[in-house]
Amino acid sequence: MKKDFYKNNRGNIAIIVAISLTVLIGILAIIIDGGWLYASKNKWQNGVEAAAMAGAFAMCDDDFEAVARQIAQENGLPSTEMEGLIILQGFYDEKDQYDDFPVYKDFIDENHANFPDDEYNNAVMVSLNANVSTFLAGIFGRDEVQVSASAVVYLQRYGMLALGEEDGDGIFILNSYKILKNGQPQLENGNIHANGDIIFNNGNPGINPADVTVSACGTVSGYDEGISDAAPVHIAPVDVYLEKLYGMATAIFTISDFPPVPSVPDTCDGIENEYGLYATCFPGITGIIKRKFFPKPINHEGGIYYFDLDDQSSFEVYINRGTDTTNMTVASNQSIKLIHGADAGGHAHCGNPGNEVRIISKKDITIFSDNSMHFRGTVVWAGNKVIYWLGGSHTFLGSQNIRMIADRSIEMDTHSWAPFMVEREFNFNFGPPCPPSVVRLGKLEPTGG
Hints:
- The chain folds into 2 domains: 2-155, no CATH class; 158-439, no CATH class.
- It has 449 residues and is an alpha/beta fold.
- Strands 5, 7, 8, 9, 11, 12, 14, 18, 20, 22, 24, 26 and 28 form a 13-stranded parallel sheet that branches. The chain has an 11-stranded mixed sheet with strand order 13-10-6-27-25-23-21-19-17-16-15, with no helix packed on it. A 5-stranded antiparallel sheet has the order 2-1-3-4-29, with helices on one face.
- It is globular and about 115 Å long.
- The chain has helices at 2-57, 64-74, 238-248, and strands spanning 85-92, 107-109, 123-133, 144-155, 158-162, 170-173, 179-180, 186-188, 191-194, 197-200, 206-207, 214-216, 220-221, 251-253, 267-272, 276-282, 290-295, 299-307, 314-318, 326-332, 336-339, 357-361, 365-369, 376-382, 385-390, 396-406, 409-414, 421-427, 439-441.
- The chain is built from 3 helices and 29 strands.
């Protein structure tokens, strides 16, 4: 009887075993292939984030796409568009100032028709869509599974950034001589941060908190919307950037390149080349020898002029009045005075995005701003202090497009000869926010468009 029972159920047992093996293999496929796909997804996500971050860092000075692809390859990802790696440059709306963009809520490709008119590329998006081979799932006809990963990294726009953390470091908008009109200067389209303190001593400035974030690791005085005890911002010091610029320089000037010191006071001898005029001056009043550079009023096409002076003489950069001087960098290991600037840099409304003027100093940068000075896209970065003197014969000078970064502190004050009511507006919205590059990882939320 037992023999007949086993004989009659042998087929059923075989079926049960076959089903059980199939289920077991399916479970193993889920575990093994699922784990493999999960690990691949994590690897790819880390890789696209690293590639996007490297691309964002390179937006201002290098071929961002080539850099991003190289970093993707170094992280074990496919590196070509044919293999599914897509790299886009565009705008990331970090402050949510615009309605949702058609594809992603806060990111829009530079070539999209809805790209905001008054914005610039400030972000790099990297996405990867490719097939991954499976192990056991091939038994069920799934030899490959598509895996996707994407990331966007943007350069945070700082209009004023003081990195010093010692006593006395920070951002100070002062009022030593004359009254700034209505709590001016008015500040627009960019963050203001100090790793030290921020002090407005003329009452609340003209700031829209939805547009400009004011934050300090120390205290914020004179502005009710300021955020204190904020996290510090850390970037490489200006020395690191200067070393890079030295290696990339179009021309390097030393003391021997300047004309000899004039023997007669109140004289100034200069030499002109394709970049501009550089001169040695002997003012009779102070007796301090001055080196001066007058860049040509042209588009310098990314020219980098490094003044390796190695002395304590004064160095001054004169931007010609009433002309366009764009797309250049002036760097020095000495302090720089920026004087009589007019139309320095390229502003959006002039159709010159990317034509910023950069003034980089290992020490101080002092800016003498009067009614003749119009910044239309200028970045200054000092290894010590940025000192901005407001003044001029007119009470209003319109919008100034200038960003200020200092490894120690930023001080803004009025000239003693300024008019009684001085009004200045600073709009930080121009070109990519660099240097320096403060990168942030953004969110890619699809909008379904």
